[in-house]
Amino acid sequence: MAQPIDEQLKEAVAVLRAKGDAPIITGRLVKEALVASGRSGIPAISLIREACLGAMSGLFLADGDVPSGAVAVMRAVAEWSSDAGLDPMDAMTSAVEGMAAGLRGAPPADLLAVSSRLEATFSGSAETFNAACHRPN
To answer: How confident is the model at residue 41 (pLDDT cuts 50, 70, 90)?
Structure first.
């Protein structure tokens, strides 16, 4: 049985410790995993959440630049989602919810930094991110 996408990405990203380009690589890994899944339409929404959860938890474990990684992951999801025939808002919501889940237990300052960076790049995303961070598992 294949390893779930969240675990695959968590492991792949966690080894990027101390690499300056870890956020960019993280975004690329997420997009590659989504493309490789072959999913499109509604079934892809849950996959986005899982991919973002794994990527962000791996980047956090690697002590990477989590806010920059969040932006790179959002860009990757945005690029892929249009090719996969997804509603961009559904894809972004799923991505942000996955990122929040992947950062459970992160210090509040880190979550605030991610929220601020997301909002600066993707208007309106901070509200969804903040709500997801405060939602129980």
So the answer is: confident
What contacts 43, CB < 8 A, 6 or more positions away?
none
How confident is the model over 70-83, as pLDDT tens digits?
999 999 999 999 88
Place of tokens 């870890």: 22
Distance CA 128, CA 32 (A): 25
Which residues are within 8 A (CB) of 76 and not within 5 positions of it... i.e. 6 or more apart? 27, 28, 30, 31, 34
- The answer to whether residues 62 and 16 touch, using CB atoms and an 8 Å cutoff, is yes
CA distance 34 to 4: 12
How many helical (H) and strand (E) elements, i.e. helices and strands, does the chain have?
A: 7, 0
How is residue 1 annotated by DSSP?
-
The label of the residue with tokens 């929220």 reads: 115
